[in-house]
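User: Can you predict the 3D structure of Putative glutamate--cysteine ligase 2? Sequence below.
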Amino acid sequence: MRQARAMLAKAAEEVGVGLLSRGTPVKPSLQPIVSHDNPRFRHVLDAYAGVVEHYEACGCHVHVGVPDRETGVRVLNHVRPWLPTLLALSANSPDNGYASWRMVQQSRFPGSGVPPVFAGPADYDAHVARMVTCGTLVDRAQSFWLARLSPKLPTVEFRVADAAETVDDAVLQAALSRALVHTACLVDESPPVRDDVCAAAVWAASRYGLDGAGVHPWRECRVPATALLEELLKHVTPALEARGELVLVHDLVDQRV
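Assistant: Sure. Here are the predicted structure tokens for Putative glutamate--cysteine ligase 2:
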């Protein structure tokens, strides 16, 4: 990642500009997004109209391998309460009073946010198929959840974070996402979390990042977002210790907060 960013920075410098990695552009483009070559993109533009025409956002996606789809669904159910904290930690698109304006833009798409609880892979597939039939998704490869089973790879795909400002920020998201997956494979099911509380937590994370209140998924009340981050770190400490990454993650968190 460092090498790739250095190459981009050099190319940008040659044309007299600099690079800034963030969830949304500092200045939006003047023209709407239009694609005439790709039939699927054309379908997306037709389906979502103005919501997608001026949608410009970049996220830091993390793929974590899982042995099978049953495990993947179990992971999705487990990570639901922690996704808003990953968002708050990554918030990198300040605009209109929000820490993550990217998430506000993404919330305009149907089904955006924390995924629902699934009984298993068949239930997951049926849910996606139902949304395609209802017309809110263009095909089974699409969804707007902040975490999902990858339609192409044997992974759980975390899509919650804003684009990482630095390589260290990307490494932190990757380490925490992987630790959450490993924790989900070792512990019993987490206590259930209400869908509306998850939605409130995503909104709070996008509004304040780590600089204000978050929503506690089980106490169902406002708490400092940094307190939720401390709970997340405690939750995944055994997984981080097992990989020798605990000190690294704590150092990266200290840099972020």
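The mean pLDDT is 93. The longest helix spans residues 167-186.
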